[in-house]
Amino acid sequence: MKVVIIDDEPLAIQVIKEYLSAVDQIEILGEFNNGFDGLKAINELKPDLIFLDIQMPKLTGFEMLELIDNPPYVIFTTAYEEYALKAFEKNATDYLLKPFSKERFIQAINKVKKLAEENKSEVNYSPLIENIQNDKEVLDRIVVKESGKILIVPVTDVFFIEAADDYVVINTANKEYVKNATMKYYEDKLPSKSFVRIHRCCIININYIKEIQPYNKETHSVIMKNGKSIKTSRQGSAELKAILKF
Question: Mean pLDDT in the chain?
């Protein structure tokens, strides 16, 4: 089994390597201390398993996973218990809370081996997630991939987000980025003081509104500063009136 370790703590990497030395048929392909280098390594080296920290410089573990089309088995290693639910949402094979014992580590490895033997690529945690309320973490940036490059888009640069089939299109002043996500996700995660869903297909940043024109009795046309005109729904107009007080 080919393994990559991605963690910004040298001691954590050392512990993982020490524990792995006692496991048969393991090849460590590399160790990396940030999400950018880790993502590049996964794409180039094609490991079977990654040990992944969550809070890291440049890219978090979750942001990194969003950019991988077919992620390998994932064992999260982190000091933050509150990220466990998110780890399972991302179909992590296991979640090791630092400091973890060698016995617990071996349990996680054995779990991966069993899944590999059964040719299962991931664990289905959907029933668990459906019964636990997701946290209300507020986004301050959106990570996108374009032509092989990883770009960090501050939410303050986002004019609006539109639905596009199974994807969303993130519109900024001069660029559009396509991301595999849902409108509901961004409605829940974007700062509510700046972003409002004015239609089932559109969330706008009120800081980039140029003009609001009546469309009919209960709806409006919102003109953004980049010239884009977006029609509201009745509920969207009500939401917009409530936040802008007009």
Answer: 88
